[in-house]
Amino acid sequence: MDLGALQTLLESTDRKRIPLVMITVTNNSGGGQPVSMANIRAVSALCRKHGVPFYIDACRFAENAYFIKLREPGYADKTPKAIAQELFSYADGCTMSAKKDGMANIGGFLCTNDDRLAQQEKDLLILTEGYPTYGGLAGRDLEAIATGVQEALDIDYLNYRITSTAYLGNKISEQGVPIVQPPGGHAIYIDAKAFLPQIPAGQFPGVALAAELYLEGGIRSVEIGSLMFAAAAKMELVRLAIPRRVYTQSHIDYVVEIILSVWERRSELRGLRLTYEAPFLRHFTARLEPVA
Ligand SMILES: Cc1ncc(COP(=O)(O)O)c(C=O)c1O
Fold it and tell me: Atom 9 in ligand 1: which residue has the minimum CA distance?
């Protein structure tokens, strides 16, 4: 989080217009990069000073904790669990899509340290999702999440996970494929603008590349660029998010091969034009066709 920008925003904006401040760990729209403990601590202090609740989007809390252990001074001897506990201690609450570091097939949760708010949320939950003891989830999925958040902190699992993601990133970048560096935790992000300089942003280079990877080898990726963010897009990225505990090294080698074969004939790729867009979150359901 840009502390200067946050401070300016908190000082210049009516408090009623800021219900909370949220940090996503790791950063899912900017390369899967981790957030440092120092940054989280500083954001928390700033939020407390201004009386604004501080929440964490905790989807990838375990990967973030592992990166802190590897990279941030003072954390090398701490367990990922102890680091995660410190990270959460600075927040007032969190949201969690447990399909990520919860290792579950479905589900998630919302936490808060505000008892009054928790009561309101539980009351609303009964109207919208289900009783507070299950929140619309099956018991087996709750069990999976309870186990998953612990297993995600296992040091051997984390080491394999981060190494395997970096392996993919390093293999393609050694051959010249432009990626966000250094490789992130859950995904490799290809820079589609640099990969396909012949396709302007208005013709969605990230979607063109994602479609080609699928046609070439059945690889499913997602654009994070002009289709997702329209005029606010700062980059044209293709995210290759890697499911946890699914792929072996030979699967990853196959992904490398497919990306490199598209890379070799990148000059043939053409842009796309939208034929359908929903009024909000258009990237989820958009339809596109090749530009003639
Ligand atoms: C950081 C982050 N937050 C929230 C979500 C939303 O998760 P869900 O689709 O389970 O609601 C995602 C999904 O990709 C995510 O990456």
Answer: 97
